[in-house]
Records
---
Amino acid sequence: ASSGFRRHHRAFMSYIVGAARSAIAKGKPDGILSSTHHPVDLMAKVLEGLVTQAGVPKGAVDDVICGVVTPLGKQGANVGRLATLKAGFPAETPGVQLNRMCGSGQQAINFASAGVLAGDYEVAIGCGVEMMGTVQMGSDTDLFNKEPTEFKKTFPYKLIHQGVSAELMAEKYGVKRPECDAYAAQSHEKAAAAIAAGYFDTQIVPLDCNGVTFNKDEGVRVPVNMEKLGTLKTIFKPDGGVITAGNASQVSDGAAAVMVASEKAVAELGLQKKARIVARVACGSDPVIMLDGVIPATQKVLAKAGLTMDDIDIFEVNEAFAAVVLSWMKTMNAPPAKVNVNGGAIAHGHPLGATGACLMTKLVNELQRSGKRYGLQTMCIGHGMATATIIENVNA
């Protein structure tokens, strides 16, 4: 069959039939999740919540693909498989762990979708977990140790911290400090409004944390103290920099999972389609500036879908840094009213391996709530990469 036939024929479509997440906690060793949950347990509880929400027998799931960005210690040994078993799936249901850094959760969903389209799966779960208060970011590598090594001496690109890359991106795209701070404040305000309106209630799996029910994103802070925000130091570029702890994503704990099914599974299991996955891509970009891959990824996924920016109703662009989203918005001429409409990682946090699935869960639910049709999600990734996905609300 031609690629056009495969893309538009119902037999070659994949659908999101469930999407769930934990509330996102501050990623501290004594945080509400770090002090009460092992990463395997956290992922397992979200998987249980997902299958309950979707109404799918656990034995009908063909694979569980789990994003984890720092896969060692308590996040090692294949969390995907361990969480699947802990959640009570049959031993016959496999699980795998992957790492495409900040895009891991989104990549897990994209791989699940591709597996359904290929006919390898009828039902698959793309998910992710990260407990940054339990396993420290970067503890799986020696890339940023000061000691010179032969590997780094001969590596073809300069290896720098993402915060330095964010400063380079801000300089390249003409993003200023006041823009970043104003954007950060808006992220908190939008997230707080969404929480107050109950927009996240049905997507969050409540967790029992030593007798306390945890069901609201912990990092959201309103009212925003703009004066304090403006005094924070630009640690990656002390003189004239724009990136601060206040306009970058938070260190967080969380988990999320999205269930993808074929047309056949939808019919046989009586599932409710929430969205059709229209197109999915990953791309590479300059490894030094690192974070502007969201621009070519957006262009690439739109071209694959045969859509334009004007066709998209809601954008989820990961708020690794405000400068990334602002640079993307300027380049892509995106209307601010369509971007991260319920806040983003600056407000609710960025549990690295989980965020891609968290954002997709938010996007699916917001399309359903608003009755809008198309959503696009994209995420910048370390070493110069990006992921992007377009989904369609089949009920719009």
Note: Residues 177-196 form the longest helix (20 residues).
---
Amino acid sequence: MSTVNCAVNIDLKLERSKRTFNVQRLTNLLDGGKDGTKRRKEIESIILNEPVFDLSRDIYRTREQLYDNGVARSIRLSQLAIKHNWNEDDKTMVLRFIHHEESISVHNVMFVPCIAKLGSAEQQRKWLSLAKEMKIVGTYAQTELGHGIFCNGQLMTIFICR
């Protein structure tokens, strides 16, 4: 990831010097303990070395480019989650850390859980691992004009299983 050389505002530096609490203790508290802080730092180091999560150029991107980059980030996040055996809390932490809403969050928030919770054993065997590994991506269709995400750029193939 690219780094930006940022000097800390003098007023901010002054206010920080007046703190009356231990920063490390607060950090551990917010992370759920020392182990949580250690885990967060491990995951951050992985993300910081992934070029796709560099958000520094996003302000110059078009809506279409932002969407495409969001999809790429979502896919890479899923790949990293599998590679590093991240749980849902770990993935949520990453999304907070990179200030990123997944472009294909419907897949992770609605599609995969529906297969896992509502699918028959046969449907789960057939589709669940494919969905979790992003080999298939599920969504839904919005029928109202002007609603949805980047509708002009969508290309869809629908499979109906009987």
Note: The mean pLDDT is 83.
---
Amino acid sequence: MDEVDRNLEKIRTRKGVKCVVVINSNGMPFHVLPSDDGGMEEEQALQFANLAYQVTMSTKTSIHQFNAQEELHVLRIRLRENEVMIVPEEKYFLIVIQDPTKS
């Protein structure tokens, strides 16, 4: 197991985390890591990832139009039953879906 896998595993096993999804810069998932307690089905996690990608791209465009010097580093969306944290990097996006009442 390399360092990236170890770090993803650390995130995945944190209290309240339902799933960790890593997608490429085109929105295609290449890692889906559900929690051990079955917090979220893979299909639902992929739906969240798709929506997270769309929201992130729209947000990045809006920020760039407002100020071309600014960059989006983290986007956090809190819903009633889920909290979605998105870290957009150049080649991939890290998406963590968690239960906001357990984190």
Note: The mean pLDDT is 90.
